[in-house]
Amino acid sequence: MSQRQIVKVVDDGGDAATVVSDHGFPLPNFPDGPGIDGVRSVKIRDDDILIITYPKSGTHWVFEIAREILSGKIIDDNVSKVQAFMEMVPEETYADFPSPRFLISHLLMKHLPDDVCKKKIKIIIVLRNPKDVAVSLYNFWKTLPHVNYKGEWKNFVRPFFHGKFIYGSWIDYVLEWEQVKKDNPDLPVLTLFYEDIKEDQMREMRKVCEFLGVERTDDFLSKVCDNTTIASMKTRQKKDDSGIQIYRKGGVGDWKNWFTVAQNEWWDQHFQERMADSPLQFKYTL
Ligand code: A3P
């Protein structure tokens, strides 16, 4: 029997969303996706750079920033395609990309090729506060015909928290990657926070320069800032016809417009229970 099946997951109101169960792990229904088995067999190069994010945490933004920093060029092409998204596109899509390549994934380390760890490739992990992630995913899903989700926000929050939708629970995801860092102290990992980039993009970009081993002037970095505002990236996406709406509000704290007081209390209580032993701190407002 195939390890991948299209399944429906239902929210608290009985509204369904279409996802794929791959080895029992919930993934988006990517028609060209190689699945976990395909991702596991991707050939990793020593100088690949992996961007790891839970969905809706700023993947496209950080990819754009990082590739401009690495190339030393302001790139004015279509930004909506995250070209080497490992579980979304077949390996052939990026097999011929020149080195160093950026690979992107929302998966966990156990789903990735063993060489990610063995070759100690550079990994940039981007984290975002999970309340804004939940709001972002909810709004994104409503735009995706293949998910076909018509549910209401009030029925979305609890199953999202418990990881019923895609990529499992945000908490499991974040804690599992934290454990990978602990277990592999010599793995080169840069952890960035979406909110920190919003707060001071120049400061966070200097960390990226150092991590990637490149020197860039403040003048260049300020041009990268201008080229990677959400407005600028939205405009460039218009050249694309995919219709996927990655660029929405791009702020910190939109969750306040969505969470009811009761939802927020419920969330905080369950969040604190699960995250009690984690030193990670998230910013929910700026
Ligand atoms: P919102 O839905 O809260 O606006 P991902 O790329 O991981 O799918 O993340 C998408 C989220 O990042 C969306 O959040 C999107 O608007 C935001 N985003 C994308 N580009 C951005 C940018 N240049 N600056 C700030 N936020 C950005």
Molecular structure report:
- The structure is a single chain.
- The chain is α/β, with parallel strands linked by helices.
- The protein has one domain: 3-Layer(aba) Sandwich (Rossmann fold).
- It is built from twelve helices and seven strands.
- α2 (59-71) packs across α9 (201-212).
- The longest helix has 15 residues, at 261-275.
- It is globular, with a radius of gyration of 18 Å.
Short note summarizing the structure:
It contains 12 helices and 7 strands. With 286 residues, it is α/β, with parallel strands linked by helices.
Low-confidence residue ranges:
none
The CATH fourth-level homologous superfamily: P-loop containing nucleotide triphosphate hydrolases
The CATH architecture would be 3-Layer(aba) Sandwich
* Fraction of residues in H or I helices: 25-40%
Q: Report the order of strands and helices.
A: EEEHEHHEHEHHHEHHHHH
**What is the tally of helical segments?**
12
CA-based gyration radius: 18 Å
Give the beta-strand count.
Answer: 7
Number of domains: 1
The overall pLDDT average reads 94
Main β-sheet description: 4 strands, parallel
Physical arrangement of strands within the biggest beta sheet: 5-4-6-7
Described by the principal axes of the CA atoms, the overall outline is globular
- Give the termini separation: 49 Å
The CATH class label is: Alpha Beta
Structural class: alpha/beta
In what range is the share of β-strand residues?
A: 5-15%
